[in-house]
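Project standup — Tuesday

K.O.: blocked on the structure for the chain from last sprint. Re-posting the sequence here as requested.
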Amino acid sequence: MIDKLKEIKKRIRKFIPKFLINFYHYLWAFTGFIYYKDPSRKIVVIGVTGTKGKTTTCYLIYSFLTYLGIKTALSSSQYFYINDKVEENRSRITMPGRWFLQEFLKKAVDEGCEIAVIEATSEGLMQNRHKFIDFDICVFLNLHPEHIEHHGSFEKYKKDKGKLFQNLLKGKIKYFKGKQVKKTIIANSDDFYADYFLSFPAEQKITFGFEGNPQKPNHLQIIKFQLTQKGSYFVLNEDKEEKYFTKLWGKQNLYNILAALAVLKALQIPLKSVKDHLKEIEPLPGHFEVIPTKSFKVIIDYAHTPQSLEEIYKNIWAIFKPKRLLCLISSAGGHRDKWKRPEIGKVAAKYCNEIVITNEDPFDEDPLKIMKEIEFGLKLYFNEYEFEKPYKIIEDRKEAIEYLLKQAKANDIVVLTGKGNEPTIETKEGSIPWNEKEIVLEILNQIKENNSKKNKFSK
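H.V.: unblocked you, prediction finished:
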């Protein structure tokens, strides 16, 4: 009965103009603001937006602040934290509406939190879920094409992201540790669209990146770095004598770390105060998560855009130098971002030695149609460069993972992208429980047992 009601709701929603849906969420935000008595005026609020890296950056900020003894709350796509109390976000809604954020902030204030960190998505911002929250520090990470059908165009997608920054100066004056918190915009200056997000008015603007003038005031820059199989080493322009280390792999994670450190800078917290803690932070589940086996590695990542996919493949080749890259690729359905399906195929064709196209979250679309559109990109790339690589289409995701794991040999890396740590696969029949890491471990264990039996019988 519940599934039928959900299906009816989906169908009705298709015929409702977007401005009415957005107004509906605006009303929820307003009534929540009234009911919970504007909790954001009593707490420093940090908003983080960007196409990729939001969840990791938000967690890093929360982890740094908590390590320093600062009572902190976090709302993200994976977890909700209030101080040390944690609840897994199983809704698959990164920026929940219907009073959630106002209630979350009220709980944070009641628990004595000084700072709240909120992961802000383009859809949440488009639907006014950020309204009536007094943000103090707004962070821009990067911008790549995504959710284009949903927003109407890339320009509208960019502008919806920009809504986080629009009313920064209209907020209340707040204090942290006895000092006034400047209304601050933090932006990745290496990103092509940084100037747009820096164009909004603010009391303070801080940039970060690998490029630019390291002497520029309020610019946090990595001037040296080394990516290794143990993790990453880097040196900041602010203190060239200090060498930082993190277990988080890849250049993209260095950007995330820079963003989190820039938040500390905005709060006038010495960066060196978290240097030792940074060494201990483990990768988040499903975010460049490495599962080692006796002879090869498996990497699980949430990468679901052509840019993020290319980034992880480049990082894996540079860091681990595998013999072969065996790649599982997929793309979401629901008639969203159809443009990126062939592009994902092209990226995999460029970097992978063997490819399996599989199911991700088809929603109400035909999974085979989605996979064929990815295959089209593969074939285009093969035809353009006049070569072939082995690939298969296997609709069942578990079967596809099993196939790749059985193909893996010594010094290979199996890369599973698209799902990360998501707890379900969404189909037109409803949600199917899913845990990619558990599936991998289960299959690896079966392979190990089968090999053990074969060896036993061969003796």
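K.O.: great, moving the ticket to review. The domain at 11-278 is CATH 3.40.1190.10 (UDP-N-acetylmuramoyl-L-alanine:D-glutamate ligase). Confidence is low (pLDDT under 50) at residues 1-9.
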